[in-house]
Amino acid sequence: MKGISSAVIRRLPRYYRYLDELLENDVVRISSKELSEKMNVTASQIRQDLNNFGGFGQQGYGYNVEYLYKEIGKILGLDKKYNLIIIGAGNLGQALANYTDFERRGFYLSGIFDVNPRLIGMKIRGIEVRLIDELEEFIKKNPVYIAALTLPKTKAPQMAAQLVRFGIQAIWNFVPTDLHLPKDIVVENVHLVESLMHLSYNLKAVQEENQEKK
Amino acid sequence: MKGISSAVIRRLPRYYRYLDELLENDVVRISSKELSEKMNVTASQIRQDLNNFGGFGQQGYGYNVEYLYKEIGKILGLDKKYNLIIIGAGNLGQALANYTDFERRGFYLSGIFDVNPRLIGMKIRGIEVRLIDELEEFIKKNPVYIAALTLPKTKAPQMAAQLVRFGIQAIWNFVPTDLHLPKDIVVENVHLVESLMHLSYNLKAVQEENQEKK
Questions:
Q1: Model-level pTM?
Q2: Which chain A residues are Cβ-neighbours of B40 within 8 angstroms?
Q3: Do residues A97 and A86 touch, judged by C-beta distance below 8 A?
Q4: Shortest CA gap A133–chain B (Å)
Q5: Which residues of A touch B196 (CB under 8 A)?
Q6: Residue pLDDT tens, chain B, 214 long
């Protein structure tokens, strides 16, 4: 698996999503041409991307949807189940906790933690919000590798460092700051404000183009 | 501004965020070397990126933080104010509505809409949730170009098409599906499940490496 460009890796979840939809619609096989039309990328890109992992396609037959779905799932590590905890039971933490799509992919919410005593005891889909002080004990008893971080910016770096000490291996970071952690800790950032700025850049470009046309 | 790679554009919001932090800490100027250490990218990348927009730096002086912050802000279209509506007042829609960081960047929430009559009248930061039927009338009275979409997958394509008919120019799409819209409509996707899959891929790689070391 080494030496595959991060751009290809970034595209795999999208393949996985499309294959999932095809499976739901009982599609058994698909050509790279048909898949390319659906996904709005070139058929040659699809073939190139999937060749990185040994192909899966057969000349004249196309791809077996279920097989390709499962293989990409394995590559993405989706053939395992993971426990996930959420740190921060504010609005975003609650929204994530309520998102059942994650479970379909093998990510099971096992705990929600907050510093705010007023939130303690509140239940989200049957899971009680716990005080952050219980975190170390909880992780000892319930092996968990992934923590979603939805805290205020000022508290995030310290909490991230603590999570790593407690054995967390991957942080899904919703806090608008970069975490500086050891190299073997996975950090996946979801920077919402940056996404909105990117939208704003493109909106500005479109508006300027429309202006020029007038 | 044409011909700038999308990778550079994607990096600009991060520069903007760091410059904002420097401003908050009353830093007046910074060298590309200092900035590179903070941001964990090479100084030459920083110089290259910023040269795309005419430089802003002066030999021996470095960058004027406030000037650079404002210039990047202009490039990103953040010198204007935008009204934003949210379609879908579920957990994620509510979380977005409560996110005050957006306003700091010039994105003002002006309306929240849902199909569920039970949510109608609920207020989030003073803004009432309205029935989706009022959308067309609302947009006529309150010019708004950006809509955040937090709906179930099945309802999203139709709603997106409707939003475009009503004059929306940019969709911030949180629905795990690709929207097929006219070319001059900006779509910025936040695919949370795909982000989690990417985390999973990296977690698997780290775990395999740790296994090999043993």
A1: 0.92
A2: 178, 180
A3: yes
A4: 25
A5: 102, 105, 107, 172, 188
A6: 556 788 888 899 999 999 999 999 999 999 889 999 999 889 899 888 888 776 566 667 788 899 899 999 999 999 999 999 999 999 899 999 998 888 989 999 999 999 999 999 899 999 999 999 999 999 999 989 999 999 999 999 999 999 999 999 999 999 999 999 999 999 999 999 999 999 999 999 999 988 888 7
